[in-house]
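ingest -> validate -> predict -> emit
validate: passed (alphabet ok, no gaps, 310 aa)
predict: started
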Amino acid sequence: MKCFFENKGKLRIKRALLLPLLTLSVLPFLPGCGGSDAASSGPRYKVGVCDWMILKRQKIGAFRLASEIGADGIALDMGSLGDRVRFESKLDDTLGQRRFHEEAAKYGQEIASIAMSGFYGQDFARRPEFESLTRQAILTAKAMGTDVVFLPLGIHCNPKAHPELRDTLARRLKTVGDLAAREGVVIAIASKLPAAQDVEFLREIGSKGVKVSVNFSDILENGLDISSELRTWGKDNIAQIHCSNTDGFWIENDPAIDLPTVKKTLDEMGWSGWLLIERSRDPQIVREVKTNFSANAAYVKSIFQPKNQE
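emit:
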């Protein structure tokens, strides 16, 4: 009898631990909140902002601000990580998910992707919980109606700065990529490698569930041409594009970014998807979120969503 109650208690604990993950997988997609169906409707190119850069990291107010900025949607962050075994996420239960869905619908915003931005400063190659953390993000993406999970390889393990970790990274990315593919999701990695090396890295990983998150600032840091690099990656390897540079100029004033040429390149490639604005703030007014991001969103839309296009 004692064993029965002990086992029953353990079963309750296991169920309690599993419940947040189960609720993520069963919540139905709500209309107007991203996902592959949404990505195929509306404009060929959609313009989004990163919630952590508009100072609304996993805050429900991000949708209203993104609407005021003029964006089509947001890259929604998973929340703080630190040395936790799970992201500190508000989206681990149906109530939180529903509140975010409702707010997104209220302001006509979509979820462009789910971002594991905690890995900008974490070590994906050494974190023992890498698989469970990625699974948490994958299930969140499904619940929120998007099929892209953004994974920056950060300062501690990106293969450009740490080639000694390349094999470990490839094995780990193969593991989470296959998990993502089974769930209809793709992991979009930012490796900082030039495109030719990135394509080779994708071959080493060998998973259909891993693609590239392009960042213009990484291309320019490598001293390379944006359009040439996009062609080298190719249409099928690009999951999303961060279309901004480091802070210094608004995108329209940045001499390093020829956005009309970039659009021509992407048109010829046949690519479509999300263009995300992360930085490119005017350093004189760097804290003025709405001013900086509104200017950039308006310019990107003027190129990629001209009024006579629709």
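Strands lie at 45-50, 73-77, 110-115, 148-152, 186-190, 210-215, 238-242, 273-277.
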